[in-house]
Structure formats: C-alpha cells, structure tokens
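=== Structure Prediction Worksheet ===
Name of assembly: unnamed complex
Input type: mixed (protein and possibly other molecules)
Chain count: two
Listed entries:
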Amino acid sequence: MKKHRLERNEKLTRLVLLLIAFSAVSVLAVITIFIFAEGTPIMFRYGVKKFLLGLDWYPTEKSFGLLPMITGSMMVTLGALVLGVPFGLACAIFLTEFSSKRLRQLVKPVIELLAGIPSVVYGFMGVVLLVPFIRETLGGPGLSVLAASIILGIMILPTIISISIDSLLAVPSTYRDGSIAMGATRWQTVRMVLLPAARSGIIASIILGMGRAIGETMAVIMIAGNAIALPNSILAPVRTLTSNIALEMGYASGEHREALFATGVILFIIIMILNTVASISSARRVKRK
Amino acid sequence: MNPPRYAVRVLIGVFSVLATLMLSACWRRGAQKELTVAGSTSIQPFADRWAEVYMTKYPGKVVNVQGGGSSAGIQAARSGAADIGTSSRELKPEERDLTEIVVARDGLAVIVHPSSLVSDLTIAQVQQIFAGKIRNWSELGGRDKLITVVTREEGSGTRGAFQEMVMGKVRIYKGAIVEDSNGTVREIVAGDPDSIGYISLGLVNEAVKALKLDGVIPTDENILEKRYRLVRPFLFVTNGPASGEAKNFIDFVLSEEGQDLIKKEGLIPAQ
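=== Predicted Assembly ===
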C-alpha cells in the first residue's frame, strides 16, 4: 500500500518537474516564433537583400537598409575583441602561471565582480570620462566606434579571463612539469605547451565575450553616437543592431515596428551562429580530454 | 488516510495563485474610475503635473500618466488602451479621424554650447547644417571646427516637429549623432563645444545656449506674438469626442488653473 503511494508520488513529481522544464523551453520557443513571425514578413515584402545590403535607414519613409548597423555591430565587437582579448589572455596567463595561488584567489573574484557592474554604469563612465577624453585628444565628436570598443573591451574582460583561467588550470600538470623538466622556460612552456593545450577553451571564452559585446545595448547607446551612416573611421559615431531596436522601439508603429523586429531577426541569427560555434568548440575540448 | 504532506502544499500553492488572480481581477474592476493618459515623452512631465494637482483637487479620482512616445500614444487612444493619447506632433492625415485638442504649445529651441561664437542663424542655415551641407562652424562665423550635429531618433515627436518646420522634404544628415531624449541631447550639446541640437524650449537651461532664429530670441512673448516660428502643439487625442472622466480631466487642463500650471513650468498656454 505504502509502496504504491510512493510510486504515485514519484510519478507526480516527475510530471511536475517535466512541466516546469518545458515551460522554460517553451518561453524560448515563444520568443523565437514571435520574433520571426513579426520580423520576417516585412523582410520578404521588401526583399532580404535590401535589408542586409541597403545603406539607407529611413523607416518612416519605408527604406530599411540595415548594412550600417550590421557593420556597426561588427566593428564595435571586433574593436572590443582587439582590446579585450590580449589584456584578458595576458591576465589569465599571469594569474595561472606566474603568480602565487593566493594572489589568484584574491584577484579572480575581483575580476568576476566586474561582470556584476550594470552596463548603464559602464555607459555613464564612458560618457563622463572617455568621450570627452577622445574628443579632446583625438578629435571628432568623441561618441564613436573607439569609445564603444574600449568600454565593451572592458566589459568582456571578466568572461575572457575567468574561462581562460579555468581552461589553463584544466591542462594536466604533467604537461607543465614535462616541459619544465626538458629545460623549457616558463614562457616557452606557456607559449608552446599550455596555450595549444587550452586552445579550445580559450576560443570558447573569446566567443562568449563576443556574444556579450554584440548583445550589449545600454552602454553602446550612451557612447556610440548612434548615427545611421556607415562609419568611415574609428572616430566616427556608429549605430549597432541592438541600439537600433532599443532607440526606436518606443515610438515605432506599423512597418517601422516590423522593421525593428527584422533587426531582431538578423541579430538573432548572428548570435545563433556565434553560440553554435561556441558549443562546437567546447564540445571538441571535452572530447580531447 | 492522510494525503502526503507535499500534496497539501501544492494544493495550498495552487489556491493562493488562484486567489491572487481573483483578487487582482476584482481590483481591476474596482479601479474602473482610473483614467489613463499615455504618449509623448515631451508632454509626460507636464501631464504628470496636471494629474498631480487634479488628483489632490478631486480626491478619489486616479489619473495614470504613461510615456511611450507620440505614435504609441495615438495608437493607444485608437485602440482604447489609453483614454487619452498625447502627441507632441501634428496628427498625420491617416490619423485625422481621431479627436484632437490642443492643450499647450511648446517652442523648439536650437541649442549650441554656451561658448559658441555663433548665436544667431537663419532657419535656412539650420536646415543646411542638419542636412550636412554646412559642415564647419567657420562658414557661419564660428571657430574652424567640424560641426557635431545631434538629432533625435526616427519616430520621435520632437524630431517629427523639427523635420516638418525646419527640414521640410530634406533629410537629416546620416552622420548626425542620434540620442533618444531631450535630456541626452542637452547633455551632449552641453559637453561638446562644437555641437548643435534641438530640444523643447521648456527644457533649455544655463548649460546650453538657445540660438536666435532669423534674429528672433525664443521667449514666451515672441512665441505668443508669433514672431518665433518653431512652435509645435501639444495634443490630447481621444477616439471620438471625450466624455465622462476623460472630459472632466481635459476641462481641468484647459481651465485657467490648468493652463497657469504649465505656464509656470515653461510652456505656452493653448490659447
């Protein structure tokens, strides 16, 4: 009798948990379906090519070229990586290979705390400190690709550093010891043994950082200037895909609103590609172990 | 036989959720007197002020003011999501079926950094600047510096009014910096000595300099006497003639008391 009841309870628990699990997945499904249902019709109505390669964004005049924003997202993200990856990687290498364990245990949580600062604070710091500095020293309006790249470069540091540290620490210590025993210096060991061994983890960290940079909105709106022209230098203002949506959604109606959903579709596809690449590269890491 | 304990908990949980839902449904029904005013972010601070005084004057009445933008406000008035929609631009031809009431007028100021050598432009010059045809302040008697043009985002009521009154059919230059509120435009112009932007006259402060246009300083007096040209209406929009609570509120807004209130806040009365 009692056993019977326990079995029934077990089944009930399973059902409840299943429902909860599916509700999480279904939220994702609903979002995906909604964005595509709202965004794709207008793309096919005006031609996908016009959306992807058009240079003019005048949504109230029915001209929906997103190329400046796609380029903007790419430039800003690339800039963030150019600045963030060397610093992040150097920091990770120093903390795993050249510093004491105590220092690492002190510094790593502090770096991870960086990730907890709200992006609006980064944006505010950018507007107050970085933008006037760029304007006065390098010229231009200050609100620029460069300003956005620097702020995003700082924002992706915690992602890159903490995942790179984990993957460097995951390299078996026999590799390290073997290399040192054969007479290699610390730096030679890092360069020729550890970095290649931790390569896929490091790549995954870079791709995750890239995802963060491309998806960031608030800080970028505040410091990138949001102009709809193709930027002709790193000192020119630029608009990204995410800021395009956030800037205009409050006022958009009709086809303008649909065009913002289309912007979302393009962003969604770009991020899906990045995530797929990230999961493939981290899957390879597991296999190698 | 007692049912297992966790089943009791699940039941209690389900009941409390249901009870909350039912309570909130009752709450909604009870709050039917609530009046929703939604739309233009330029009008929002003034509508807030009206609502505040209106609610102290008539205890028990609730006016709920929301932003969202002019286009959203007009849409909300049409769909019934708001009793009154607010718009800081004129209605488009396809929106003319709604009822509009001018509740105030607002000047649009073209602003520059206080240190700028330029303080008087013609409207044609302003148009050339925003079209990207005049690129350097030296062409206008200023320093030899590139002009940083700051505009509002597409769809904004303030941009719509500026486009209509200054630009006409000419597009705003693509390289212009785009900001999404009057406040951020003012912030950027206050920080950059070579910039130019436009904001609601009521929001001009000592951090920026409002330009004379065609020789006319933007003041309340010049607007009332129609010497200053960049003036836009602040509209309340309703789906069909206003009635009931909405009408009471609009009557209050148009009353001497209501109009005096916004005068103190820097707006121009409707009449």
